[in-house]
């Protein structure tokens, strides 16, 4: 496995194969590993980037304390047969005196966009830069970050970026909690209680799919979360193509949620396909 610590080193890599790309911020877990498995295909080279992108963190967010576990991350990549890893420095991605950012409108504005102003500008900018450096044929993203997937698909369409975007299912712990690098901020006790979030999502989706009144169900589910110590930022039933809220059941729509639990911000989403798996308890 090749490991490149700069963009120029990466550009001198003599790879002849089309690339399948998995961008990450490191602190790799089974969710990232599932993307790496999807990226490993005959006739393609797999490339993972590990870069904690400063521009997608707000001023009061966790950029400086975001987990950085490079040695373990490289081992995960090696175990998954990744061909090359790009680990650039911040100045390599954001040259001194840079003056260009990508701003996506529409799908980037509500929900995550409203609670984390400028977050998606940072995401779109770094992803476009990484695409320009890595020049992948295919890039893999996790459905865990559903709105991020919509923002990237919008950017790729609007800017005619020659890459095919693939969205892969959310990997979960045995109790249903979606894997996230931020779960390690939870104490053992809060970690156990946090599984109430996917439980409520599942119950809420079940009620919506039975044709019950959507606003009422969203309200009572938010209340149930609040009663159990969650500070709900949003819980919404949306069309994943537009991120517009919906009042009626449709099998394409998804429930999206963001809630703080004991100071840790958790996001998740589920759709009917997840219920069809009988249980989302275990991915
Ligand atoms: P991050 O390192 O958090 O920027 O995530 C890198 C990629 O991994 C993104 O495409 C995420 O959506 C994806 N990802 C994060 N958590 C999960 C998960 N639990 N299951 C599947 N993919 C995930």
CATH class of the largest domain: Alpha Beta
Largest sheet: 6 strands, parallel
Low-confidence stretches: none
Number of helices: 11
User: Bound compounds, please?
Assistant: adenosine monophosphate
**Largest sheet, order of strands side by side?**
1-4-3-2-5-6
CATH structural architecture of the largest domain: 3-Layer(aba) Sandwich
CATH fold-level topology of the largest domain: Rossmann fold
Features:
11 helices, Pantoate--beta-alanine Ligase, Chain: A,domain 2, 2 domains, 9 strands, 283 residues, 19% strand, binds adenosine monophosphate, globular, alpha/beta
Q: Can you characterise this structure?
A:
With 283 residues, this protein is α/β, with parallel strands linked by helices. The chain has two domains: 167 residues, 3-Layer(aba) Sandwich (Rossmann fold), CATH 3.40.50; 100 residues, Pantoate--beta-alanine Ligase, Chain: A,domain 2 (2-Layer Sandwich), CATH 3.30.1300. The chain contains eleven helices and nine strands. A six-stranded parallel β-sheet has the order 1-4-3-2-5-6, sandwiched between helices. The protein has a three-stranded antiparallel β-sheet with strand order 7-8-9. Helix 3 links the parallel strand 3 and strand 4. The longest helix is centred in the middle third of the chain and has 16 residues. It is globular and about 55 Å long. The two termini are 28 Å apart. The mean pLDDT is 96. Bound molecules: adenosine monophosphate. Adenosine monophosphate binds next to helix 2 and strand 5.
